[in-house]
Amino acid sequence: MAENSQERTALVIGAGIVGVCTALYLQREGFTVTLIDKAGPGETCSAVNAGGLGAGSCSPFSLPGLWRKVPGMLMNRLHPLSVPPSNFLPATPWFIRFLLAGRQRRVDEIADALLTVVSNIFEAYEPLVTDAGAKDMIQHQGRLFVYTSRRAFESGRYERNVRSSRGVEIEELDGDQTREIEPKLGPNVVHGAYQRINGHVVNPKRLVQVLAEHLVRSGGTLLREKVTGFETVTDGAPKVVTETASHTARLVVIAAGAWSRALAAQLGTEVPMQAERGYFMMLPDPGIRGPLQWNDKLLAICPMEHGLRVSSGAEFAPVDAPPDYDRALANLRQVDGLIPGLEMRELERGMGARPSMPDSMPVIGACPGHPKVLFAFGHGHIGLTLGAVTGKLIGELAAGRPTSIDITPFRPDRF
After folding, report:
1. For a Cys-Cys bond, which of 47, 124, 176, 304 suits 389, CB 3.0-4.6 Å?
2. Are strands 32-37 and 9-13 parallel, antiparallel or unpaired?
3. Does the predicted model carry a pTM greater than 0.85?
4. Which residues of the chain have pLDDT under 50?
């Protein structure tokens, strides 16, 4: 993949956290980089990220026995999982693959693979945030999982064991011990689990913007254009066509999140990706010490520099479909049952589409049939977590070096 210095040009499609980190790592490898997106940096999925940096997030979302619970989830209006009727049939193949990924042997394989990448996230982010002057945007308060029922606590034991059996330290707590870590929690919290190695970002959108500004200051180019397709170029990367222009480079990286599936298909590669839309609302922060995960209600709660972000949702709908805020906010507002006296004054709301693969693993590697096109998408719930690691791996591939982590499990043709 390596080129001589005169030919080291790269075009990265997608200016979310994965695309921006990839552009920065390519720049560090000596490439002249153009970053292109229809929106500004961090304006789509990254802008609504829950903020977590899951250094121990190696468990897939599909687990043994989950298939028994799916019908009840879909029937519950306040459950985060929803599939609009018009998307039932289109999404069915994805859900079949998703449930098959929940077999115990496959769960172990996925967890082992994910551990190799999530274990390196802070090391991968370090040079990027240091150079951009953004080290203070990453905090290290860990993550506290809270439970308001014994049933939910026991239900989460399998997932905790997947992590702890791979060396991720998880401290199980009773209700009082949980409130010692987070005093704002109410008396209905009966159990907790504390994962110390996790971190969080105080403003995901601003982090992406600061990193993108550093890219431009260092000689990169940022274009706000919508990519519509590709034109074949002999003996090289395909020409990237937008609504207003066309662009050539010796290397093309597709890192466009949930929009990557359509772009990959134009190059002859079908990937089983679904847009999994999540929602958030910002509330006044009552002084929460660090990120929380209320597992009974599947709500993520994260203190940020501009308020308290409450996130949830697994809405499998077309990526450009209008948001369903009525359902989403009914779910998010359940947070008032966890933190007594929480001011339910909505400061902001938003929706973003996660690029979710059925096996919970990203797609990282060369496009089949197009060796000068690299894929970097499909990160699902851990896009912010894996942004810098993915960027580093793409940089190594582009430079023609062996990757520091085995990317075979994430290859585009694994399905």
Report:
1. 124
2. parallel
3. yes
4. 2-6
